[in-house]
Design brief:
22-stranded antiparallel β-barrel; globular; six-stranded mixed beta sheet; mainly beta; 683 residues; 57% strand; 5 helices; Maltoporin, Chain A
């Protein structure tokens, strides 16, 4: 309690200074301003066959990332994953490696060769990584809960803070438009290995209120067949799963008129609860398993936003609680852990010059003060431990009124448990180098550049885990850079007044480079301890190419995404370390995803093929897992009526029945199927 009181005292003194700074800016910039909700035009979208556009995001910081590569998963493709987890979506539909420890086990992101703790998960701008272990388990994030799902490639610590080193998974709820509307949809799915899924969605809004609710239930036996180390086929034991949860969104709008100027204010409350009960099956090197794990989480977000002509002021406060109960029954005692996290943010955005004065350059400024406070207790901690990270940040945007040039520069000062940490600068830019268009065709060529200083504070387990925590750990720090080329070409052939044929081609190629010092590794025998052991150099190339051909009501598409990642240890504090110059464990050099799509009227057919390269199991590359390829076929047919729609979809996973392991000793399921029905009503 003494540490908690000390942290609160530090918070009070620091935030007096932060609020004073924001107050001065508020007074200086309180003239009539207009908020421009800029849409992020640099997204690299999934293969589109028939889907609506990308909606504006809740988090204003995402409007200042023009030079970064962002993969936004298309809603049509995501409809096949409403009964699955985000782990399945990202693993099959992106070139990002998802480290999955087998059925019912942890799944984490490894973006551009970063560790799991260096890849952040943000829910409407709020970090939801568990503060104790530093990661988010994306295998228990339901694919049907969120309106927008995106992957941000490359770190942006200046905007998003500690942990945003390799990139981020962005989960956003749609912004309500407060137009009278109501809808209900029910998704039912069932398939192999006793899989059952239910997803209920409802949405209601008028000119003042918006209420949205999504609730899910899932269960599976996961009793698939696999080949053990003796070459015998057996059924996976102790692998049942049940999970349920709900996400509620409530928004209230009240427009006010002050001095003849309209102020639009929105108050929002979001609450997200879920629980998963999982049996943990044995690895191939284990004779049996009776392990069980229960994960419970409750996340809430209260936010306020005021929009004027050229200003936006906002405040948000979030409380997250993650609880985990682990039962071994054989080797280890049962374990109970709980983590509570508070996140607050206060900020303002100003359009500095009036966009109506036809000036070529437009200036925008965002200043915000985030606060992260977390504390954990459990059987592996000697006492309640905490982490306190306030910050002060700002970002400036210079944009031409024709959108040809966009430049962003950001600065952030972050404190960590009363200590001032690294000053974090960052900049990115997008330049439309070439634009040629007429009635028949158009060609667009854009250049993207991103330079950021990265930073990750050690998590609570790394510092205080008992036994083995290391209180002397230093933060991981370094720089990351990327440069990309985006080419988009549209071509049409007219027949009379109709477009008889249209072709769309796009290609993006991005080179990235990142050097991180004081990389944290866990080493040991009976007791494992984390150490700052190395400097890791990650570099590589990511590509995404798409071709879409339309003829009347028929669409053909092909999309290919690839990633080449070379992540090697360049320096080590250990003498005669065999990891120097070697690829870090579980970072495949090659990853790729292919989609072949066909659409006709209300029919959609898609084939997905994914390749994962060699994964080294040890730091000296002495052991490795073979590459594997999997294929998935997905089919959907929709019957639209006036206020109703009915659709059926089916998919076959691991079509070619490949035997593979993502992590050593953890077999994955063979060929399996899933059939779903969706019934929707709306007006």
């Amino acid at each position: 309690m003494q540490k908690s009181n000390s942290a609160l005292t530090t918070f009070y003194l620091l935030y007096k200074k932060i609020l004073l700074t924001l107050g001065i800016l508020f007074v200086l910039l309180q003239t009539p301003f207009q908020s421009l909700a800029q849409k992020n035009h640099d997204t690299l979208t999934e293969v589109r066959i028939a889907a609506p556009g990308i909606k504006p995001r809740q988090d204003l910081r995402q409007n200042f990332t023009a030079g970064q590569s962002i993969l936004t998963f298309d809603s049509t493709i995501r409809s096949f994953y409403k009964a699955l987890s985000l782990s399945d979506l990202i693993r099959e539909q992106s070139p990002v490696f998802v480290k999955t420890y087998g059925v019912n086990s942890l799944s984490t992101l490894a973006i551009r060769g970063a560790s799991a703790a260096q890849s952040e998960v943000l829910w409407n701008g709020v970090p939801v990584n568990n503060a104790a272990v530093g990661v988010a388990d994306i295998s228990i994030l339901n694919g049907g809960l969120f309106s927008n799902v995106s992957l941000q490639y490359g770190g942006s610590s200046a905007l998003f803070g500690s942990g945003n080193v390799g990139g981020a998974l962005l989960l956003d709820d749609a912004l309500p438009d407060f137009k009278k509307h109501q809808s209900v949809s029910l998704n039912l799915a069932g398939g192999s290995f006793g899989r059952q899924n239910v997803l209920l969605s409802s949405d209601w809004q008028n000119e003042r209120w918006h209420i949205g609710l999504k609730a899910f239930y899932q269960a599976a036996k996961n009793n698939f067949s696999f080949e053990n180390n003796s070459g015998e086929t057996e059924e996976m034991p102790n692998a049942a799963l049940t999970g349920s949860g709900a996400l509620l969104n409530v928004d209230y709008l009240w427009p006010q008129q002050k001095n003849g100027k309209i102020q639009r204010q929105v108050l929002s409350l979001k609450t997200w609860w879920q629980q998963y009960d999982r049996e943990i099956p044995p690895a191939l090197f284990e004779t049996s398993s009776v392990k069980k794990q229960t994960d419970r989480s409750w996340r809430s977000l209260l936010s306020w936003k005021q929009e004027r002509k050229r200003t936006v002021f906002y405040a948000k406060l979030s409380f997250n609680r993650d609880g985990m109960s682990y039962e071994d029954g054989v080797a280890l005692p049962n374990n109970e852990n709980a983590v509570q996290q508070w996140y607050g943010e206060l900020g303002g955005q100003w359009q500095i010059n009036n966009p109506l004065n036809n000036a070529y350059w437009q200036h925008k400024l965002l200043v915000f003060a985030p606060l992260f406070y977390a504390f954990a207790d459990g059987e592996n901690l000697n006492r309640t431990e905490y982490q306190f990270r306030p910050a002060l940040a700002g970002t400036y945007q210079l944009q031409s009124n024709d959108g040809r040039y966009v430049f962003n520069a950001a600065l952030r000062q972050e404190w960590w448990n009363k200590q001032e940490q690294a000053f974090l600068p960052g900049m990115n830019a997008k330049v439309r180098a070439f634009n040629l268009g007429n009635i028949q065709h158009d060609l667009l060529v854009s250049l993207l550049v991103n330079i950021q200083k990265s930073f990750r504070a050690p998590n609570l387990n790394e510092l205080y885990f008992s036994p083995g925590g290391n209180r002397d750990l230093k933060p991981e720090q370094g720089w990351n850079e990327s440069a990309g080329l985006l080419i988009q070409f549209n071509f049409g052939i007219k027949a009379g007044n109709l477009n008889a044929y249209t072709w769309q081609f796009s290609n993006s190629s991005t080179y990235f480079n990142r050097n991180i010092r004081d990389w944290i590794y866990w080493l040991g025998g009976a007791i494992w301890t984390p150490h700052n052991l190395a400097e890791v150099h990650s570099r590589g190339i990511e590509t995404e190419s798409k071709i879409i051909w339309n003829h009347q009501q028929t669409t053909w598409s092909i999309g290919l995404k690839t990633a080449y990642v070379l992540a090697t240890t360049t320096e080590s504090y250990l003498p005669n370390d065999g990891s120097i110059g070697k690829q870090i464990p579980y970072t495949p050099r090659y990853n790729g995803a292919l989609n072949l799509g066909f659409g006709w009227r209300h029919l959609l057919l898609n084939y997905n093929h994914h390749y994962t390269g060699y994964r080294f199991v040890t730091t000296d590359e002495s052991q490795y897992l073979e590459p594997f390829q999997t294929g998935n076929i997905q089919l959907a047919y929709t019957v639209p009526l006036v206020h109703y729609s009915f659709s059926v979809n089916a998919q076959i996973k691991n079509l070619w029945n490949k035997r593979y392991e993502i992590v050593n000793g953890r077999p994955m399921p063979g060929r399996n199927f899933l059939i779903g029905l969706q019934m929707s009503w709306g007006k």
